[in-house]
Write a structure and sequence with these properties.
The chain is α/β, with parallel strands linked by helices and 194 residues long. The protein has eight helices and five strands; from the N terminus they run H-E-E-E-H-H-H-E-H-E-H-H-H.
């Protein structure tokens, strides 16, 4: 199984080296269950091997109260989102932003699950190729650094000297995810002389 997983990472490396465009993205949400909770912030960084191409960032009014436990994690309050657009209002802009790119996320199933749940509520099709399957920096970090034993984004950023400016805010987490993705590929190139 590990051999197959490494093959996948090598395929990602080839795409990256070939100039493919990726979008690292992150969501902040009202909770952990995409069937009942909503997205309150999306941040995304579009990039390729030559650097950052563009950024996307917006707070989102979830049209439901943000629980205190969520605010404690990300610092986003009900007042902050009161006059912000709904997911329906930003949906097309986000889909245009990621169009034709390969998505990258840390614990990708979580973020993809939330975006797809929001899309389904709007009777829009779920994300499909080339956006997904998304590259998951959590899974890749576990494979590349099995000795670490801890893999949350802030821990890995600290471990690899990636600066964190606003932990648990979507745009900064997306940038950190992009830099972790690049760090992992650089490590792979050195280790396997690719």
């Amino acid at each position: 199984i590990i051999k197959n997983k490494m093959k996948t990472i090598k395929q990602i490396l080839r795409l990256y080296q070939g100039g493919e465009i990726f979008t690292a993205f992150d969501t902040e949400t009202t909770g952990l269950m995409n069937k009942t909770d909503k997205i309150i912030e999306i941040g995304a960084v579009k990039f390729n091997k030559d650097g950052i191409i563009d950024k996307f960032s917006t707070l989102i009014n979830p049209q439901m109260p943000i629980p205190f436990c969520a605010t404690k994690v990300n610092g986003i309050t009900n007042q902050m989102v009161a006059n912000e657009p709904t997911f329906a209002q930003i949906c097309d802009d986000f889909l245009d932003f990621i169009n034709g790119t390969i998505l990258v996320a840390h614990n990708a199933n979580f973020d993809i699950g939330f975006v797809n749940a929001e899309l389904l509520r709007l009777n829009k099709p779920e994300l499909k190729k080339p956006n997904i399957p998304a590259v998951d920096t959590l899974i890749n970090s576990r494979k590349i650094y099995p000795e670490l034993g801890k893999y949350n984004l802030q821990f890995l950023a600290n471990e690899f000297c990636i600066s964190v400016e606003s932990a648990h805010r979507a745009l900064d987490d997306a940038r950190v995810c992009m830099e972790l993705f690049q760090h992992n590929l650089d490590h792979l190139k050195e280790k396997h002389h690719l």
